Amino acid sequence: MIRRFLLVSSALAIGGVLAACSDSGKTPAAGGAGAAGAQQQAAAVGVITLKKGDFPITTILPGRAEAFQTADIRPQVSGIIREITFREGGEVKKGDVLYQIEDAPYLAAVAQARATIAKAEASVPSAQSNFDRYQRLVGSGATQIEFETAKTNLLQAQAEVESAKAALAAAEIDLNHTKIIAPFDGIIDQTAYNVGNVVAANQTTALTTVRQIDPAYILLTESSTNLLRLRSAIAAGEIKGTGGNDAFRLILENGKEYGEKGTLDMSKSVVSETTGTFTIRVRFPNPDRIILPGMYVRATLELGSESGFALPQLATSRNANGELSAQFVSADGKVENRTFENASPSNNAWLVTEGIKDGDQLIVSGLQSITAGMPVKPTEMKINDKGIVVPVAPPAAGGDAQQPAAK
């Protein structure tokens, strides 16, 4: 009995020692895990330090490119196409011959008209002589009727000469129209007719089309809700593009900004009854022919400037109420979410005038891994010309570090 008690006591004693050792081993591990968790909560984020300044107020309008001039080429005389002198899709200059229509019948018509003139002119001297003779004899051997008849014959002979000259001019015009020329400099489309095809004067089907695309027109559309504001800005001269200055910048279909700036050319004063929009036409230089008719583009229009803080669009979002929202670093190093009721577009940013002060740090990267109230470790960043967030270059310390060595 005593032996059994001793065995049980020994087992309990050993179990207590093992439990104590296990507890002592777990306590430091738990403490280490808590410290590691605290370090993981301080997420690394990129920030930019905001400073109040004057920024442009802009609006972005959708639009479509159109040619500056477009001409459908049609024949003005009938005949067979003898020659096509242009390269389809190539450039043509004003006055270049595009099509040559068979001109033999028109050359014959010109020759015939010249012969008719010669015949008409040959009868004029005889009529003139007869008129002069009766003019001298009127009242002394010649009757008034004979004089009037001679006068009429002279006038008819002269009229026949003028008529023949007019017929010659018409024949020469038709002959010139056998050469179909380019009306202006531009790009020519493919031809709808080939050599040997018969064409008719003023036919409905065009032979080809010539488009002038330098400069190019951009037709922008805007909703009627902004009509009064835009027209007032134009009338007040707040749009810097009026009067020859550049105010429009263009974003192409590939998302890149076009290198040239545009000027306001025309603004319609009538709102479409079907779409509720109005049209603004802008002219852009297009020397490299980057803008092609039919392209869909977006134009940025500067309406003026305002003092405030520019929040890059890549660092903002909209909440369920449609309010602009952004994440900031608070004074105690935690994530602070702010919303703004009023924000105006300013190029690739939102211009905010309230709720921000100089020196506030806006979080621009690492937004996916943070939530409001989370501790963060900010790193100063900047947004380059391409809209990419990159670290701010650290100050050049190499020179300072080498100065002691030089001494």
TrEMBL record:
What SUPFAM superfamilies does the database record attribute to this sequence? HlyD-like secretion proteins (SSF111369)
Q: InterPro entries of this UniProt entry? A: MdtA-like_b-barrel, MdtA-like_BSH, MdtA-like_C, MdtA-like_HH, RND_pump_MFP
| Cellular compartments per GO CC | cell envelope; plasma membrane
Q: Where in the cell is it found?
A: Cell envelope
- Annotated coiled-coil positions are 147-174
Domain named Multidrug resistance protein MdtA-like C-terminal permuted SH3: residues: 312-368
Instruction: List UniProt keywords, sorted A-Z.
Output: Coiled coil, Signal
Name the Pfam families for this protein. Answer: Beta-barrel_RND (PF25944), BSH_RND (PF25917), HH_MFP_RND (PF25876), RND-MFP_C (PF25967)
Q: What residues does the Multidrug resistance protein MdtA-like alpha-helical hairpin domain cover?
A: 110-178
What Gene3D superfamilies does UniProt report for this protein, alphabetically?
2.40.30.170, 2.40.420.20, 2.40.50.100, Helix hairpin bin
Specify the signal sequence span: 1-19
Per UniProt, residues of the Multidrug resistance protein MdtA-like barrel-sandwich hybrid domain are 70-210
Q: Which NCBIfam families would you find in this protein's record?
A: RND_mfp
Q: Which family does it belong to?
A: Belongs to the membrane fusion protein (MFP) (TC 8.A.1) family.
- The protein here is known as Membrane fusion protein (Multidrug efflux system)
